[in-house]
Design a protein that fits this description.
Elements (H helix, E strand, L loop, with lengths): L4 H4 L12 H13 L5 E6 L5 H13 L13 H8 L5 E5 L6 H10 L10 E6 L6 H12 L5 E7 L7 H4 L3 E5 L4 H14 L6 H11 L3 H11 L8 H8 L4 H13 L2 H13 L4 H20 L11 H11 L4 H20 L4 H13 L7 H16 L13 E3 L7 E3 L8 H4 L5 E2 L9 E3 L1 E2 L3 H11 L1 H8 L2 E4 L5 E5 L2 H6 L3 H15 L8 E5 L8 H12 L1
Parallel strand pairs: 1-4, 1-5, 2-3, 3-4, 12-13
Antiparallel strand pairs: 6-9, 7-8, 7-13, 10-11, 11-12
Length: 540
Amino acid sequence: MHQALYRKWRPQTFDDVCGQEHITSILRYEAQNRAFSHAYLFCGSRGTGKTTCAKILAKVVNCESHVNGNPCGKCAACLAIESGAATDVLEMDAASNNGVDNIRDIRDEVVYAPSTLRYRVYIIDEVHMLSVSAFNALLKTLEEPPEHVVFILATTELHKLPATIISRCQRFDFRRISTEVLMARLQFIAAQESIALDPDAARMLAKLAQGGMRDAISLLELCSGGDREVTPAVVEDAIGLTGNDAMLSTVQAVADKNYDLLFSRIDEVVRSSKDISVFWQDLLSVYRDMLVVKTTQNAASYLDLTDHEAEKLQQAAKRFRKETLFYHCKLLEDAFFAMQKANAVKRIVAEMTLVRMCDEALDTSVEALQSRVAQLEEQLLSGRFVQQSTPAPARVEASPAAPRVTEAAPKEPIPVSTERKMPPTPSSAPMSEGGKRILRPIRAWMEVVEKISRSDPMRASFVKTSRGFTLEDERVLVQFETDFSLRMMEDDDARDRLRMAVSAVLRREVGDRMLLMEVAGKKENASVIDEILAASDSDE
């Protein structure tokens, strides 16, 4: 009868256990000094070696001649335990034997001495499945068992165990096995089994196993069926994965708003044997990797990628801002949960989500607004404003009664020391075609007020009630509520303070001729996006 590879290559000694040296070294030390604990607790994710180490420990405590803390595998005790003939080593699955009666049977048996071996060993797998009454029945026996009894408890969900049980055991936490260790083990097994395994395919299998050795070996056996070479293409076809290049092209399509490519990608997944949920998990993993690249200094230490894959991922991450990546991850996560609830409409959920990822204006969530605001901030800080899907700034008609405007009068180049003695003359703000002017509100106007208040608190009170705008020709217009406020800011010193504060906030030089001041006439109408930005400022 065929034996599964993960059973055939199960380690028989502590030295053969991969990726758990922090545990096996302690167990070997206890075996060498014959200083065993009465109860052990092995906890960790699936396939990391808990049951394997429990069986090795059961052999080594009864081994007649251990070798450097490992069972010899040749004595009568080791052979009996390996063949399953030893009646003093009992394995129990708590998932199907979780009642109090099962634990009472163990409690009644432990009083008797072992029949053939030195110790009677109880291995209770998935111990977190025991009922509350069963835990209570086990508690006293676990705390003070007879000297000839050893308990080994294994669980994947430590948080479900009572603290009273955990405190009475010697606890070992099994870590997820690293990708490199899994790759090395897979290549070793493949060489022993005459399986042609491509290194890139080995990396894919190791990543898919998510730190579990049993899963990695099972995937290798699945992909090697039919006596064929295991390549990345074979792995993708056998498991239903989408290649890394295809996932990155999907991400690029989202950045380019290429709806045709996105719909064709979903159609390709539906027509193939692949599950949309698996495709969606792969896409979410790519976004997670891009987020790591975008937010960390040493992303390579957190990602299991080749140099070529890492370079392509960095290029893709440059096309998104952090706020946009968070927004897309939220959409992908919500869509994944929706797919689990409604299996029949997975395709519709996927297509609708990809469209929303391409056009943030279709979503009114906080994450979507944060992404749009971040885009505007980036454009404003860079000194440019690129109109995309947001409404254009409002054009307002000039007031019938011409407002009072002051501006530094044009003058010939003269020494700086005498330039400020030239009195400013009235002038009108620039008009665009049709007698309309475009006003873009300065969002950080309160920063201007704060900078002036540090040196001149009195004049800062006049600026606080004013509003600042930038015009099409990069000039700055300040509108005051009253004529008195305007007159107070017209003298040279006050004007200089205002100009320097505006220059610091806008991060560009605002010359004397670039600063206009007037008394506000008709109230200017802001665009929809300006209202959003103003609301966000008030929240802060």
